[in-house]
């Protein structure tokens, strides 16, 4: 390569300063991306592009968010935010069509990591108090699927959502995960159904307490038994069928946070007083609660389990952050046990001293229905208003919204990197052997 060409390419690759207004810096960023030699096809150029994009997000993510939400007057889910931003500011974020094309490759290892840009962007949205609080507020609104079905559910007391069912029994609303083909593991479809089920329980005024449970499964080892939750569908992850935004992020901001905090009320997203329409939740564990299942136990008000059940977070076998468990599990089992669980695959067994830090009661086989009734009755014994008031007080003391927002900013940025780390693929091939499993 001659000296003139070297100087030209060095000039094209120079990182812009990005110290101007939004439109100016977006233009400088996209000009830089277009000027990269051979585009963004090489790992080196993708890394350069990512650094420049994040510099733009660090300075302008709140302004981009304000733009797509009409100055915080539109409530959008995380997926709607990132795809709207991709349309409004072409080149900064992947489009929906680009991610559909990557998903069609059917290999996580074959993807270029376009979702990393989404993770970085949302991280910097959350790092800003106003934008971050508004996004959390938006994700705590009922889904359209739930508002479309609530009238029918109030009339019939039952909804079949495909991978989940919801049933009202007196003042109790039971959400049941029904993904029997995959031992009640979670994937994009199951997550959508579960969150809708949680919404229906929260929206029905006749329900005062929620129950989360697993349905019967097909696997020969557990035939005829209920399984609470087998965590993320690792086979789908290996084959590139788990979405970073629609599953990884919206699971945290939607499913888990709605159980923990409830639905937002009104439009006052910027006030410090927590004012959520919430209900207490009982987790009913049969067989096991693995990974994401254990994460769900961390947001329950009470957990009951059959004998011989267990709970674990096999993060070291997978290679990513186990959701918000790093934030919440230490409050239950202590920081040392949490580290043992996350880094050293420690299993917590119901009935043991450490397992009973997660589980509140071990229920004999055949007595679960009676235990559910007894526990839900006790949870409301002081009256609904008192129960919810004490629930709010305990939560605010343990996990203020500001702490949650900062944790999720970190989580969004780091989890997208984990999802595209080669070690994740190697971990799955070694410990899960996905090539031998059905999709």
Features:
globular, 19 helices, three-stranded mixed beta sheet, seven-stranded mixed beta sheet, 439 residues, alpha/beta, 12 strands, single chain
The CATH architecture term of the largest domain is Alpha-Beta Complex
> Widest sheet: strand order?
1-2-3-4-7-9-12
- Stated plainly, the CATH topology of the largest domain is called 2-enoyl-CoA Hydratase, Chain A, domain 1
User: Quick one: CATH superfamily of the largest domain?
Assistant: 2-enoyl-CoA Hydratase, Chain A, domain 1
Radius of gyration: 23 Å
- The percent range for helix content is 40-55%
- Number of DSSP helices? 19
The total count of strands amounts to: 12
Low-confidence stretches: 1-12
Portion of residues in beta strands equals 5-15%
What CATH first level of the largest domain would be assigned?
Alpha Beta
What is the general shape? globular
Return the average pLDDT rounded to an integer: 93
For the sheet with most strands, the description reads: 7 strands, mixed
Sheet/helix structural class: alpha/beta
